Amino acid sequence: MPAAREAALARRSWSKVTDEAPTHDELLQLVAAAGRVADHSSLRPWRLIELRGDDRDRLGRAINKADGEKGVSSKPLRAPVLIAVVASYRKSHKVPRWEQEAVASGVAHVLSLLLDEAGWGVIWRTGHYTRAKAVAKAHGLKKNEELLGWLYVGGKPARSRPERRKAVDAGALLTRMP
C-alpha cells in the first residue's frame, strides 16, 4: 500500500501526549513538505507559529483574559509544542478568501499526517478562542489574518490496545453527479 494512503488510514487524534517533542529543525523539514499542498496562484496564504515553554503560558493568559478570568489557563500545557495555524489572506482577484483558508487548512492537515507518520502524537484543537482578540494579540496576528486552531504535538503514549476507528463508508460519500 502506498505510504500516503497508509498514513491517512493510520491517522488518529492524540488527546493525550507525553512531554517528548520534535525539534525546531524536525518541524522545519515537515513544514517544507506540508507547504506543497495545492495553492492556486501560489499565494501561500498561511503561516505557522511554534509555541514552546513560556509561549504556552502567554497563550494560557490570553485564553483566560478572553474568558474574563485572571491567571493562566492550563489548556495550552496539554502538549509540549503547539503549532498555531494562521490563515494569512492575500489580495487576489482570482483566489477567493474561502479558497485561501482551505489552503491553510490543507497545510495543517498534511502537517498533522507527517507528524503522525514521524511518530508524534497530534490533535488539531479549535474553538471560540481562535476568534478572541486577546488570543489574536498574543499571536501577533495582522488584520488580514485569522487563527484556525493549534496542532498540539508531543510523544505518543504507550497504549495497551490500539484504538479502532470506524471505517469511512466511501460509497455513501462519493457519488455521481445527478
Automatic annotation (TrEMBL):
Its Enzyme Commission number(s) read 1.-.-.-
* Keyword Transmembrane included in the entry's annotation: no
Keywords (A to Z) from UniProt: Flavoprotein, FMN, NAD, NADP, Oxidoreductase
Cofactor(s) this protein cannot do without: FMN
Q: Which InterPro entries match?
A: NAD(P)H_nitroreductase, Nitroreductase, Nitroreductase-like, YdjA-like
Which intervals hold domain Nitroreductase? 10-64, 74-154
> Which protein family is it in?
Belongs to the nitroreductase family.
In terms of PANTHER family, this protein maps to: NAD(P)H NITROREDUCTASE YDJA-RELATED
The protein here is known as Putative NAD(P)H nitroreductase
Taxonomy of origin reads:
Bacteria, Bacillati, Actinomycetota, Actinomycetes, Micrococcales
